[in-house]
Specification:
With about 325 residues, the chain is an alpha+beta fold. Helix content is about 35%, strand content about 20%. Bound molecules: dinuclear copper ion.
């Protein structure tokens, strides 16, 4: 959609229009009250000016109805802003379950994008229209921020953890990607383009890209290259816990605490393996911080996600 005026970014995602409506509403409310207050200041200054040196102002002790009015109206208006903003925020914070997944790593000073099918890009990101896209975002060095104004989404890329953002593109075209967090000398050059394509064109593009195996396959290779496989066996005989079905499950720690094995849990367990020890195991795993890049880490996570829970041994019929 074309922007209402030249300085405004184009709208190319499902949330963009509603985001603009909310933004417009807040600007309109602020503008209305700014003009109203300024006009009344001028009007009252003129109307109630001192006309004679002996003039004495009326002695007014307040008005309950007036005070209630100017309390109640702003209260309602700010609650509307809060409820509307919160509902939009929750929608942006919860990616749909059927979203396709991309991995993005920020690094001084570029964006590296990895498709689950294995195709990789730098400072470009191809996505199809009409399909929610969930991005798992990491940083190789310092704080960056992945910002796509045409989609009205942005998210910090934080060193030491993974963050997510999602969008659904609506209009084919090329749109800016910015780094929106000052990250060093070439911060302003840390830019790129999202290329939104019709789904058929996207499939063609994807098939034509050079791929060195899917993200999960690369992860599987790393899993054996880094010798993870020698301890994390698929049964319970390994020195480390089996990883079958671990993603999304509840893991009980040595402390008795239970945590959900999400992306950040897996990340921490790889990079800083002593942080959380699984109950019944010893903290003998080396930390892979500095040995595994964020991109490789995302491949490992993609692989671990594919490890389905072991088939329950068929119980004797009862
Ligand atoms: Cu990366 Cu600014």
């Amino acid at each position: 959609m074309k922007p209402p005026f030249p300085l405004f970014p184009p709208s190319a995602s499902t949330v963009a229009v509603e985001m603009d409506l909310l933004y417009g509403f807040i600007v309109a409310v602020c503008a209305f009250f700014t003009v109203l207050v300024a006009a009344l200041v001028v009007y009252f200054t003129i109307k109630y000016r001192r006309r004679h040196p002996d003039d004495v102002g009326a002695d007014i002790h307040g008005s309950l109805s007036l005070e209630l009015t100017w309390t109640f109206i702003p209260f309602v208006l700010s609650l509307v802003m809060f409820a509307w903003g919160a509902s939009l925020f929750f929608r942006l914070a919860t990616p749909p379950a059927n979203a396709m997944e991309l991995f993005v790593v920020g690094k001084q000073w570029m964006w590296k994008v990895q498709h689950p099918e294995g195709v990789r890009e730098i400072n470009e990101m191809h996505v199809p229209t009409g399909r929610p896209v969930r991005i798992t975002l990491g940083s190789e060095d310092v704080l960056h921020d992945y910002s796509i104004p045409a989609f009205r989404v942005k998210m910090d890329a934080v060193p030491g953890k993974l963050t997510t953002l999602w969008f659904e593109a609506t209009t084919p075209g090329r749109y800016h990607i910015f780094c929106a967090e000052y990250c060093g000398t070439k911060h302003s050059g840390m830019i790129g383009e999202v290329i939104v394509m019709h789904p058929q064109d996207y499939e063609v593009w994807l098939a034509g890209g050079r791929s060195t195996g899917t993200a999960a396959q690369n992860g599987e290779r790393l899993f054996s290259d880094l010798a993870c496989i020698t301890c994390h066996k698929t049964d319970s005989t390994g020195r480390g816990p089996s990883l079958l079905g671990v993603f999304g499950s509840q893991v009980e720690l040595a402390s008795g605490q239970k945590v959900t094995a999400d992306e950040n849990y897996l990340r921490e367990s790889i990079m800083n393996s002593q942080a959380k020890i699984v109950k019944g195991y010893q903290g003998i795993m080396p930390a892979f911080q500095g040995m595994v890049s964020e991109e490789n880490l995302m491949q490992l996570i993609a692989y671990i996600k594919t490890l389905k829970p072991a088939e329950p041994a068929s119980a004797p019929g009862k």
